């Protein structure tokens, strides 16, 4: 198992996800999405599993400031990669599998 948690230190769901894996003594790699972001290949892999809409945080301030509702789908994906604060967190990956948000039921199936 190769667990990666892409998250933000300010996100309560990210902290809950980390705690869930720690309590079960499952090793994971934490990546701060605000400083590192997602690579284009990681993004495509996650998007294929969960879909674009699940990845985008429509309630954050940056979503409105960047006029995400009014631009083309290709431009939305480009903006998402440029501004990692637009991602919903945590994004948890296990190889080709991925989840967005706090999903302990799915993570339990992985173990």
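Sequence proposed for the structure above (111 residues):
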């Amino acid at each position: 198992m190769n667990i990666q948690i892409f998250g933000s230190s300010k996100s309560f769901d990210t902290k809950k996800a980390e705690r869930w894996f720690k309590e079960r003594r499952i090793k994971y790699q934490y990546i701060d999405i605000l400083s590192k972001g997602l690579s284009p290949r990681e993004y495509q892999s996650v998007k294929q599993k969960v879909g674009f809409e699940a990845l985008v945080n429509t309630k954050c301030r940056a979503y409105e400031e960047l006029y995400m509702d009014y631009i083309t789908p290709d431009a939305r994906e480009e903006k998402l990669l440029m501004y990692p604060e637009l991602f919903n967190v945590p994004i948890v990956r296990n190889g080709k599998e991925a989840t967005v948000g706090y999903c302990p039921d799915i993570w339990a199936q992985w173990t």
